[in-house]
Amino acid sequence: MSIEIVTKDDLQLFRKLLLGDLRQLLGEAMGNQPEPVEGYKTKHVRNILGCSVNKLVSLRITRKIRAKKVGGTLYYNKEDVKKLLQEGY
Questions:
Q1: Could you say which of 18, 43, 71, 87 has the lowest number of CB atoms within 10 Å?
Q2: Angle between helices 42-49 and 53-61 (to 10 degrees)
Q3: Residue 59 belongs to what domain range?
């Protein structure tokens, strides 16, 4: 049976290798982050247009305004909101 002795230099090398691997993994994970959502939330659109929730649902169904659901929150397309305002809604 042989005994191996771990020195401080061995531990320092292990620490550097471990930190390098962690940085690489975190860098890859950060590169896979979804892009931030561009758009207005429901409450903001209702304030801008001065409409009810039901009217907003109706606009979505008739495809006059596009929405994207992210994590349970609806985000409305900014261009569609501007277009509705220009049409005099």
A1: 71
A2: 100
A3: 40-86
Cβ contacts of residue 75 below 8 Å, gap of 6+?
37, 38, 39, 40, 41, 67, 68, 69
Percent of the chain with pLDDT over 70: 92
Query: Domain for residue 14, yes or no?
Result: no
With respect to residue 10, please indicate whether it lies within any of the assigned structural domains.
no
Reported pTM: 0.59
For 64, other C-beta atoms within 10 Å of its C-beta total 13
82 within domain boundaries? yes
Residues in the chain: 89
Helices 42-49, 78-86: inter-axial angle, 10-degree rounding? 10
Two structure tokens written together for 68: 């994207």
